[in-house]
Structures
1.
Amino acid sequence: MSNRAAARFGGVQKSATYAVFDMVAQMRAQGVEVLDLGGGEPDFDTPAHVVDEAVNALRDGFTHYTPSRGLPDLLDAIATKLAKDNGITVDPATDVIVTPSAKHALFAALVTVLDPGDELLVPTPSWVSYTAMARLIGALPVQIALDGANGFRITRELLEEHVSPRTKALLVNSPNNPTGHCLTHDEARAISRFAAEHDILLISDEIYEKIVYDGREHLSLGALACCADRTITVNGFSKGYAMTGWRLGYAAGPTDLMAQMLKVQQHTVGCTGSFVQRGGIAALTGAQEPVREMVEQYARRRALVVRELDSLPGVACSAPDGAFYAFADIRGTGFADAASFAQWVLERTGVALMPGSAFGPGGEGFVRLSFATSPEVLRAACERIGRALAERA
Ligand code: PMP
Ligand code: GLU
């Protein structure tokens, strides 16, 4: 049969992270034991007070549509959080939209700002879905390979090399998936000057904001005076509050853009789940202790996995600033590329991980291991990889 789907799909691959989720599920269904360091998902349960609030909402019959933008109390809580945590000033009545997932917020934001043929700058390594989303809209992702030797920093030079008259927006993700890198003041300054000079919009994906280590400061581009009017900030509850299955996120930005984005929301999902939003209010306004406890555990796992990986022959791994991924340089192992390393590790050891090349040209030669899993699994996975590498030598 000829290809009946839209031509836009020509350059769109299935999600590499979902491919790993599916493969692990399939192998387990066949009775194969897999140590899963592939897909990035907190292994913690959602904090109990958040669950209670949503369950009570359901029991109280809170099962109807909400305003498309979101529940007013949640919009207020998000605006308060953005002011307090991020230094971003927004009007909850006009500048915030609650979305079913940060993923949807990103897609809606890209639909809002990109015309077919527009270019979206995407520094890589970057999360797998940005480029696919741009292509689904008929826009062109322009991937910028960042240099691992420079800590995967975004530089003015690299941005200038890739900008064109069709460049409409730049997508920045900090803390970064997969590298864990957190934006520095120098990078934020370079980005803001670049954006102002070329009149480029910024989409700032801050979903790992809560998960930072060693007292690292999280910087929000939307807080910079020169960026406030050109930045859509995207965030969500999946990572910080361990709420992946809830599908709850939000976007905040300039009033004119958010007015257009509301049309995307109204004509696609309508609104986010009513009781899910009630859970979101509890997450933002309730005790933050569960978040701190999860981050403490991630910090311990980070120390463990970085130490173990860095000691393996041919592997170099530095500690990420944030998120819950170790991004290890495997170029010293002698494998042709990251995909063949990941495939070999899975077959030889039953450890699932992500090849860095799935995250764009900047990720080749690296692999991503999620440490959002138990220390026992992390230790066993590193031991198995170490043994297999030693046997191969
Ligand atoms: N951005 C990044 C960088 C991510 O890793 C994820 C996790 N899948 C998302 C956005 C989307 O998060 P969610 O859709 O679960 O809110
Ligand atoms: N963000 C996670 C990851 O990178 C979850 C999967 C996805 O949504 O892509 O593995």
2.
Amino acid sequence: MSLENAPENTDERSAFYDRIADDNFTPLWQVLSNIITAEPQSGCRAHLWPYSKAREYLLESGQLITAKEAERRVLILENPGMRGLSCITTSLYAGLQLVLPDEVAPAHRHSQSALRFVIEGSGGHTTVNGEKTTMEVGDFVITPPWAWHDHGNKSDEPMIWLDGLDIPIVSLFDTSFADRYQEETQPLTKPDGDSLARYGTNMLPVDYHSKSIVSPIFSYPFERTREALEKLKQKDEWDACHGIKLRYINPNDGGYAMPTIAPFMQLLPSGFSTRRYRSTDATVFSVVEGSGVSIINGESFSWSPRDTFVVPSHQWVTHETSEDAVLFSFSDRVAQEKLGLWREQRGR
Ligand code: GTQ
């Protein structure tokens, strides 16, 4: 079996290929090297979206259309190597969402999972399954699959957050379902902070036994995550490739917080240069604090707070910082691990 080149063509072969094509047959040997590659080979490219530009365009879109009319006023971060496909990696979607003061993004639900990572503003909210969660910068918020959710903003500043959804994964499996709630917003059935108190304090209600593959915690407040990272910085046992990197978990089983998207937060101490690293989970980064430079597949990307950048599957990356930097990130690692596909490699 040749993985590199297709066998040569002859007139006789070509005539055969043409004849069977009409009946929806294709010879494998003509396409094998394109569909089973020696290494990952997508069009996904490394890219950085500077926040200054994103913010300007988002606020401009705020003059053009309301959140209500748009359903969700989002500018999709499209990977430059896969334009028109509404995705940032082959398996994930990302966008920046704007909710202006007093706006409502109406209640709906879909089979796609979503995460929100808050970038700007304070006091906006999202309601998930009858519980309202206030959003502050750095908070990581989950919308589980098929959960009713609506967003609002009762503050007097724009709220902007990064959306991460598994839209391409759901498309791959052709399992997309969506539904509109009969009212603009859903009724609140739980007090604010209920799920965090119940499931998010390293305790669980006695006799609670859930095997749900989605975390019951809707919102992971930044304050706690930041404090943990700061504590861990004190002892300099940092991972050579990741600095100090934590993953958001599902307290039901210690697995990732979401079934298809793996979320992380990491701290790269000032002056830290990471060792070369690559893994098969293309990863989206959102800069929370600090600035630095990432070299992805030989190309240099300088980042500062609120920028978004993407590292494609299996491309070598290093990060370098001149001040403490905090990076949120997400990838499909959880899905790849479940399917036995995930690989990583550490350079020297
Ligand atoms: O907030 O529910 O960026 O349904 C894309 C689709 C956000 C949302 C997106 C959505 C949402």
